[in-house]
């Protein structure tokens, strides 16, 4: 298989060019199957991760893009090659074996190689900050590179009996990533020699996992016990962009037990319960954007769920109650890093609790209704937000820094209500119309539950038409699909970020109040997609 895709994007200069290929060579025997799979993909996109300032959004400049302007400090036209470039190759070898008496196994090995960079224009840089071998001040073009690979192995063995199934598995993988920056061009006069790399750091992550999952049937009930042991060894060292140091050596050992039960009360009713504990380690960016005192910690969650399902001739109803209590949950602060990814922090105690419900009703042979509703509380307990005050030399003034304490506050980017409703209509065989509506309630850009730093409730409606044509000749089938997105041309925001400029302590003892800056990612108005799929 192969694909080529291109787009000019919704926002200015938000174009993309993507290509991929996929090759699968398989061998099938009576008791085994073996697959050798190779795939490769590459992309080049003009950067679109800066978002839109609140002022520009209020002015209606919904497609404005500040990429290539160094936050609008560059004079003249935006830099035309402010792009993100990446390519990645995968190689997988997958083997499945069928043994006697309900035993079967699988083993797979894989290798992934990736390399890429993003290029950006910077205004008024001090060249000595890039290397003591250069002197001068002016604009420049730089590239920030990532060269990485991942190699791993998975193996499992399954035993199936009349009322018992057991799966045992192991997996091991190792990731290596090398980050470095190069100067493509200095645009002002300078003296000295341009370095090959103005920063460089490397990280190595080893992940070892073993698990055993047993399912036992007794009468109308099924019991599931899943035990997982996971060891993560994570190290990084070197100089990061901006000249700071990254240096950590972590060894995490996680035990993740899960217990489930479900019961078929009768042919119409089913109930189930689940309880479990799991852990998740911090990622590299969590270490990069934390200080040496507040090193990120792994998060731990205790999860309990209770569910019910009812099935009848024309209806399906599912309901699920859940409660998750977190220790040291890694949550977004509301700010983002230089490529638009959320910067996260640990919070000591937090929870997510709520309910999910699905309902499907066949009104007639031609009409069907489906809805999915989600309601939840997403709270941090005993949270402190720091409004940092800087001295005139940009050092932190601890005595004038303001601490906002919250006994309970909403977790950023966590809506309390999500609604999806779909009405389907099939006027005749192989043709279907679908009317779809989604509603997402208010989300906060940070963890202070401030209305001035929030994304308002939004709703949009899509409409689709699909039709299948069947043939008796060389061409067997043709699928025609038309998707009309946001048919009412709603103006809405789905994501955003915020940051506080900081207060300033003046020499006379007064304090100049800082400013909150909000940035949004507006979504496109009415747009459509038409597709044709053919099968020979």
In short:
This protein has two helices and 31 strands.
Give a description of the structure:
With 536 residues, this protein is mainly β. The protein contains two helices and 31 strands. It has helices at 54-58, 284-288; strands spanning 2-7, 16-28, 32-46, 52-53, 83-98, 103-126, 134-135, 137-160, 164-186, 191-192, 199-218, 221-239, 245-264, 269-280, 299-311, 315-336, 342-362, 367-387, 389-390, 402-410, 417-425, 431-440, 443-444, 454-455, 458-470, 477-485, 493-500, 503-505, 511-512, 516-522, 527-535. The strands form five sheets. The chain has a 21-stranded antiparallel β-sheet that branches. Strand 25 (458-470) and strand 26 form a beta hairpin. The longest helix has 5 residues, at 54-58. It is globular, with a radius of gyration of 27 Å. The two termini are 14 Å apart. The mean pLDDT is 94.
Radius of gyration: 27 Å
The DSSP helix count reads 2
Characterize the quaternary organization of these chains: single chain
- DSSP summary, beta strand count: 31
What's the layout of helices and strands?
Layout: E1 2-7, E2 16-28, E3 32-46, E4 52-53, H1 54-58, E5 83-98, E6 103-126, E7 134-135, E8 137-160, E9 164-186, E10 191-192, E11 199-218, E12 221-239, E13 245-264, E14 269-280, H2 284-288, E15 299-311, E16 315-336, E17 342-362, E18 367-387, E19 389-390, E20 402-410, E21 417-425, E22 431-440, E23 443-444, E24 454-455, E25 458-470, E26 477-485, E27 493-500, E28 503-505, E29 511-512, E30 516-522, E31 527-535
Parallel strand pairs: 19-28
Antiparallel strand pairs: 1-2, 2-3, 3-5, 4-30, 5-6, 6-8, 7-10, 8-9, 9-11, 11-12, 12-13, 13-14, 14-15, 15-16, 16-17, 17-18, 18-20, 18-21, 21-22, 22-25, 23-24, 25-26, 26-31, 27-30, 28-29
């Amino acid at each position: 298989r192969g694909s080529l895709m291109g787009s000019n994007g919704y926002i200015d200069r938000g174009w993309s060019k993507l290509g991929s290929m996929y090759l699968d060579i398989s061998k099938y025997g009576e008791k085994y199957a073996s697959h050798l799979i190779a795939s490769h993909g590459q992309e080049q996109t003009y950067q679109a991760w800066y978002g839109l300032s609140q002022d520009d959004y209020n002015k209606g400049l919904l497609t404005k893009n500040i990429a290539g302007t160094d936050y609008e400090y560059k004079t003249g036209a935006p830099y035309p090659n402010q792009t993100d470039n990446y390519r990645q190759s995968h190689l997988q070898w997958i083997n499945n074996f069928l043994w006697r008496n309900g035993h079967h196994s699988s083993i797979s090995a894989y290798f992934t190689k990736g390399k890429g960079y993003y290029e950006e224009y910077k205004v008024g840089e001090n060249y000595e900050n890039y290397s003591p071998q250069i002197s001068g001040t002016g604009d420049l073009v730089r590239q920030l590179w990532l060269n990485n690979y991942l190699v791993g192995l998975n193996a499992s063995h399954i035993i199936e009996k009349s009322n018992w199934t057991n799966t045992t598995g192991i997996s091991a993988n190792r990731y290596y990533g090398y980050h470095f920056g190069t100067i493509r061009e200095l645009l002002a006069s300078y003296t000295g020699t341009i370095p090959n790399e103005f920063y460089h750091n490397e990280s190595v992550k080893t992940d070892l996992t073993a698990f055993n999952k047993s399912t036992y049937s007794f009468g109308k009930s099924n019991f599931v016990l899943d035990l997982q042991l996971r060891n993560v060894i994570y190290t990084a060292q070197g100089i990061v962009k901006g000249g700071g140091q990254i240096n950590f050596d972590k060894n995490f050992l996680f035990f993740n037990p899960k217990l489930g039960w479900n019961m078929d009360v009768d042919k119409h009713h089913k109930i189930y319960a689940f309880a479990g504990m799991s852990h998740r380690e911090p990622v590299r960016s969590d270490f990069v954007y934390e200080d040496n005192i507040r090193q990120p910690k792994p998060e731990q969650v205790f999860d309990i769920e209770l569910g019910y399902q009812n099935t009848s001739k024309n209806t399906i109803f599912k309901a699920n109650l859940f409660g998750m209590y977190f220790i040291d949950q890694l949550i977004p602060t509301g700010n983002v890093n230089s490529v638009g990814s959320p910067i996260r922090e640990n919070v000591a105690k937090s929870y997510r609790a709520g309910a999910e419900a699905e309902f499907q009703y066949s009104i007639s042979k031609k009409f069907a209704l489906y809805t999915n509703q989600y309601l939840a509380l997403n709270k941090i307990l005993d949270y402190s937000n720091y409004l940092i005050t800087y001295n005139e030399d940009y050092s932190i003034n601890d005595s004038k820094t303001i601490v906002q304490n919250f006994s309970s506050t909403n977790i950023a980017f966590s809506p309390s209500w999500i609604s999806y409703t779909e009405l389907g209509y099939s006027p005749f065989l192989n043709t279907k119309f679908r009317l779809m509506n989604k509603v997402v309630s208010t989300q906060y850009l940070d963890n202070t539950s401030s209305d001035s730093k929030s994304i308002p409730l939004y709703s949009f409606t899509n409409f689709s038409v699909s039709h299948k044509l069947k043939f008796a000749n060389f061409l067997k089938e043709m699928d025609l699909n038309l998707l009309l997105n946001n048919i009412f041309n709603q103006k809405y925001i789905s994501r955003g970020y915020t940051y506080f400029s900081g207060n300033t302590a003046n020499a006379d003892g007064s304090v100049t109040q800082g400013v909150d800056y909000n940035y949004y990612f507006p979504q496109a108005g009415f747009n459509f997609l038409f597709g044709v799929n053919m099968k020979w």
